[in-house]
Amino acid sequence: MTTPLVLNKKVCLIGRFGVGKTSLVERFVHNRFGEEYLTTVGVRVSQKLLPPLEKAPGQVVQYRLLIWDIAGVEKFDRMTATYLKGAAGVLAVADLTRPTTADILELLLREFRERNADGGIVLLGNKNDLTYSESVTEILHAIGKQFQVPVLLTSAKTGNNVEQAFLKLAEQL
Amino acid sequence: MDQYSHLKKLLLQPEQEQIQKLEAELARLREQLADKERLLETIKPVISETLSQKIRESRDEVAAALAPVMGAAIKKQIQEARDEVVDALYPVIGQTIRKSIAEAMKKLVASINERLEQSLGLRNIYLRLKARITGVPYEQLVLMRALPFRILHVYVIQKESGVLIHHATAPGVDVVPDKEMITGMLTAIRQFASEAFSQDQTRELNKISYEDVEIYLENSRYVYLAFVIEGVPPGNFEEAVHALENELHRQFHAYFRSFSGEEVPLPELDTRLRAFMDQFQTDVPAARSKKTPSMRRVMAVAAVLIGIVIGSLVVPDIWRDFRLNREIEKLRLSGQLALPPSVELAVNDGQLMLSGTLNAWNTRNDVLKRVRRLFPNVPVVDRLTVKPFSTQLQQWQTQVQDSLKKLGLPEVPALRLSVVDGAVVVEGPVKNKMEAMKIASLVGKITHAPIIVNVMQEAAIPAEISWINRQKVYFAFGSTTLSDSARQVLREIARRLQPLSFEELVIYGFADSLGTPAQNRRMARKRAESVRNFLQQLGIPANKMRIDVQNPVDRQVTNIAEARRVEFRVMP
Predict the structure, then answer these.
(1) 3-class SS at A58?
(2) I need a surface site. Which of B112, B242, B301, B354 has the fewest CB within 10 A?
(3) Touching check for B180 and chain A: CB below 8 Å?
(4) Residue B286's pLDDT is what?
(5) B234 touches chain A (CB under 8 A)
(6) pLDDT in tens, B327-340
(7) Is A5 close to B184, i.e. CB distance below 8 A?
(8) How many Å is the Cα radius of gyration of chain A?
(9) Interface with chain B: mutation pick from A6, A10, A78, highest number of B CBs within 10 Å
(10) Which CATH superfamily is domain B463-571 in?
(11) Among all residues of chain B, which has the CA nearest to that of A87?
(12) Considering the domain B149-279, what is its CATH architecture?
């Protein structure tokens, strides 16, 4: 088998406070900087080498994701815009138990698409191990349809769909 | 006194005297208790002895018992009388700091002495010669060798994403694991600093200190460079870093611009980074050991042998540098090496060092070319810098307008040049894209800037042209004949075109998707020809019209009848 071409890609996790972005990264990778960076600088970078992927016949690539976990945002501010620069894709996360966390994602994704029309996007409804209202998933599916992007329900606690979320994003890079 | 009293006195006198004595003793003790200083004086030896004994017997218990009380007391004392506490601690802490500084100074002096001792030999002669040739003061050369400076790592990082493009590590230094993650975090910190502390986001973080290691950050257009260094950087370090950034940009800007995260070996970039690191490498002096007399003899013999070896290595170096200097002088005198006055050419360790500031990139390139041509086998270290573009903008703007005139192209009065991140940006309204490209290419030739950003836009289209460009002439299935309504549209187009000055009218022919590709192309061309012939009859010159059927089938059209048509574009 030919050695795959390793591609380093910056991806960001965005969403409101407490939706479980950091827990998703914790679940997905263990190689990371300390928590204090998140509170000081507003970002924490982790990395994960994904398994090789056949992008096209005979073209095998292996993505190393540099995951920028951006501290929860309540609105799209200048700092968030700066951190999104150069990102090849985003995981937009909502908390399934809090409907208000899904509303902001439309704005965040619109801002991201304006900056990177070809960027990959995966929408995540996290904490699916808890009881939640269907209205949140409806909002997520509506946003997913609007941006033509996949929606996954995840649980950082049980690990459900976490790896698939990152792999799904990698498929779009 | 009666007899009873006398008897009482005789019987109780000793007891009364005893009571008086005791009362006096009691009064003395009360007084002693009231006077705390005296009391302390009295009980001090007892408490001290008891405490010492207790501490000897169970140190940990005493510490555990006292810790909360002492901690709270010290905290309270600091809150209430900070200055007094500082005054009390100053002699102790001050002394410790003085001791540490003295230790460090002692080490530095020892290091310098060691270097000076070593310098008494051939190395001294070499350093003195080097100082004469390079112009760097002898003392500086000695000091540079005494204060070891090393570049541990160099990272080339994509500016916005923080993705690592390349990384070089000094020999003997441990390779950093997870460097991709580190450069990501470094980028986040840099962006955070820029957003948080710079009002207009133009200022950049350029240095991070961490214990005895420093990270120098050098900004470029598409990337930034991070140098992890140890020790005191020499005076020319920052200048050399700027020059390296310039050089890397010139050599690799196309790669940096199109970089999309691929992890591939970059031998040329690696060689250049390693050469840069070597340029600043000074050897760390080894710790001196105590030597026995016999060892000294062995060492002396070894020193003589090493001296011979070094001599045989150094003397040819000096001779080579001397010959190079002589050759430069000869070429200068003969006029073959005429360099601008701001440029300095020096010889250092068999290399030619070019330094100075020039007005333009082309002059810089000329100087480099000339020197490389005259000395094809000698490595040239390029430390030439070019004056910021901003100082030459006005001059370039005039030159561009003059050149446009000479080339017979119309002047562009609103043409504006500016400089952003080392690139020349060309702005202003132009007639069409072709003109924009011609002007950008002219700006490139005049400025010799490595990057030209062309943001010229087509000027607003006159209403008549815009109307013609919107017109469409439709045809029946399988037909190339013009209908009455089509003729009417074409008459109006001809009427509006007559007074206009234009380069050409492009006639685009289309067909529906029902036929074979060859049939569709033929049909599209015939329809366009029908239109052209009719317009010619109406007075539009044939040489001002061009037929285009490169894409004869428009698959975006949902109504098939609309696919059979001809469209127009007037080129101003």
Answers:
(1) coil
(2) B301
(3) yes
(4) 40
(5) no
(6) 888 888 877 888 88
(7) no
(8) 15
(9) A10
(10) OmpA-like domain (3.30.1330.60)
(11) B161
(12) 2-Layer Sandwich (3.30)
DSSP letters of B221-286? SSEEEEEEEESPPPTTHHHHHHHHHHHHHHHHHHHHHH--SB----HHHHHHHHHHHHHT--PPPP
B180 to A64: CB separation less than 8 angstroms, yes or no: yes
Q: What is the CATH number of the domain that holds A166?
A: 3.40.50.300
Residue range B348-403, pLDDT digits in tens = 878 888 888 887 777 888 888 888 888 888 888 888 877 766 667 778 888 888 88
- Closest CB to A10: pick one of B163, B262, B263: B163
Test mutation, B159, B163, B167, chain A, max A CBs within 10 A: B163
Distance between CA atoms of residues B273 and A115, nearest Å? 33
Q: What is the CATH number of domain B320-385?
A: 3.30.1340
Class of domain B389-458: alpha beta
Is B264 touching A (CB cutoff 8 A)?
yes
Q: Which residues of A touch B263 (CB under 8 A)?
A: 5-8, 64
Chain B residues with CB-CB distance to A79 below 8 A: 192, 195-196
- Indicate the pLDDT class of residue B483, thresholds 50, 70 and 90: very high
- Give the span between the Cα atoms of B232 and B280, in whole angstroms: 11
Mean pLDDT computed over every residue of chain B:
79
CA distances from B323 to B130, B313, B315, B326, B369 (A): 14, 16, 12, 5, 21
C-alpha dihedral sign at B527, B529, B532, B537: negative
**Residue of B159, B192, B198 to mutate for A, most A C-beta atoms under 10 A:** B192
pLDDT, greater one: B42 or B153: B153
Q: What is the ipTM of this complex?
A: 0.81
Over residues A75-107, the pLDDT tens digits come to 777 788 888 888 999 999 999 988 888 888 888
Distance (Å) of CA B51 to CA B58, B59, B60, B127: 10, 10, 13, 66
